[in-house]
Automatic annotation (TrEMBL):
Protein known as: Tryptophan--tRNA ligase
Record keyword Kinase present: no
Keywords: Aminoacyl-tRNA synthetase, ATP-binding, Ligase, Nucleotide-binding, Protein biosynthesis
Protein's UniProt keywords contain Ribosomal protein: no
MF GO annotations: ATP binding; tryptophan-tRNA ligase activity
Organism: Saccharomonospora marina XMU15
A Pfam match: tRNA-synt_1b
Similarity field: Belongs to the class-I aminoacyl-tRNA synthetase family.
InterPro entries named in the record: aa-tRNA-synth_I_CS, aa-tRNA-synth_Ic, Rossmann-like_a/b/a_fold, Trp-tRNA-ligase, Trp-tRNA_synthetase
Alphabetical list of SUPFAM superfamilies matching this protein: Nucleotidylyl transferase (SSF52374)
Catalysed reaction, written as an equation: tRNA(Trp) + L-tryptophan + ATP = L-tryptophyl-tRNA(Trp) + AMP + diphosphate + H(+)
GO cellular component: cytosol
Documented EC number(s): 6.1.1.2
One annotated GO biological process: tryptophanyl-tRNA aminoacylation
Length: 347
């Protein structure tokens, strides 16, 4: 039986944070032992909202940071293939082949695209951003991935990929597996400001690479129940970011239940609840810090991982794109013209 594949990844726009972990990274770590794993460093996708020269100049450093974050989180470099999207030209070719299999109105219904455009401060959506899900489909299908663990923002994108795969197979014969979306247990993680999801651009994130002091400082400033002005006032646990983090990351479930009860009854202050959360987060992050330090002490390792993975992925993608062209009949058209031209040249 052929080994099934998993593909997912991130745009190299900065370090990974707790939102990335609950959205997709935890599933990557869990599933890497079940699937042949491809992790894309999606710098072409980055261009849809960050395409200035200084944005592109930061790609190399951001790629190194993100690979270190993934290794620190528990990705085994012996089991996962990291690759740089822009280094594999055949991905763009497959993107072109797939573009005719989806309509503009269908892409306009993808909810996250408008949100991405607004977050980037764009008055109008670019052609590249509208086509983001098609390029993502090319990423997924170019390695014939069977599983795609992504955060909530990308759920609709994976559904577009599934539609494109089915459409291609219907028109040209079975070529691509229809990939399955792997959902996360925590659909999204609110930022430390309590007003929006965790995001690098909003400066409301706790990063996987943050120091223990950084975590304590950020937790101390977290938003809680705005209507609670004293510790003896009964507080709201539901929708309270501090308790959402406790439930997601605190391994001492009895402590979480006890703090929730006391908070609802007005028998504990925000300071104690936040101190317990900071301690829990640092327990969660400490093993990542140790693994990160281990990999950081091996100069050149991350670069070697990316280069080796990119070269390996290129061979896989070339074969898949050849199969797609053959299924469509594109390879045959040129070959017939070439053979005819050669025959006439010999006369």
């Amino acid at each position: 039986m052929t080994t099934q594949r998993m593909l997912t990844g991130d745009r190299p726009t900065g370090r990974l944070h707790l939102g990335h972990y609950v959205g997709s990274l935890a599933n990557r770590v869990r599933l890497q032992h079940r699937y042949e794993t491809f992790l894309i460093l999606a710098d072409l996708h980055m261009l849809t909202t960050a395409n200035r020269a200084d944005d592109i100049a930061r790609v190399t450093g951001n790629v190194r940071e993100q690979v270190l974050d993934a290794l620190a989180a528990g990705i085994d470099p012996a089991r996962a293939t990291f690759y740089l999207q822009s280094a594999i030209g055949e991905v763009a070719e497959l993107n072109t082949l797939l573009q005719s299999l989806v309509t503009v109105p269908r892409l306009q219904r993808v909810p996250s695209l408008k949100e991405m455009s607004r977050a980037a401060g764009e008055a109008e959506m670019s052609y590249a951003l509208l086509g983001y899900p098609v390029l993502q489909a090319a990423d997924i299908l170019c390695v014939k991935a069977h599983a795609v663990p992504v955060g909530q923002d990308n759920h609709a994108h994976v559904e577009v990929t599934r539609e494109i795969a089915r459409r291609f197979n219907h028109l040209y014969g079975d070529t691509f597996p229809v990939p399955e979306l792997v959902r996360s247990d925590v659909t999204s993680l609110i930022g430390t400001d309590g007003r929006a999801k965790m995001s690098k651009s909003l400066d409301n994130a706790i990063y996987l690479s943050d120091s223990a002091d950084d975590v304590r400082r950020k937790v101390a400033g977290m938003f809680t129940d705005p209507n609670r002005i004293r510790p003896d006032v009964p507080g709201r646990v539901e929708g309270n970011p501090v308790f959402e983090y406790h439930r997601a990351f605190n391994d001492d479930h009895a402590q979480v239940a006890e703090l929730e009860t006391r908070y609802r009854e007005g028998r504990v202050g925000d300071v104690e609840v936040k101190q317990a959360l900071a301690a829990a987060l640092n327990r969660f992050l400490d093993p990542m810090r140790e693994r990160r330090s281990h990999y950081e002490q091996q100069p050149g390792l991350v670069d070697e991982i990316v280069v080796t993975g990119t070269e390996r992925t290129r061979q896989v993608v070339r074969q898949v794109v050849f199969e797609a062209r053959k299924a469509m009949g594109l390879a045959g058209a040129y070959n017939r013209l070439r053979r005819s031209a050669e025959r006439h040249a010999r006369r």
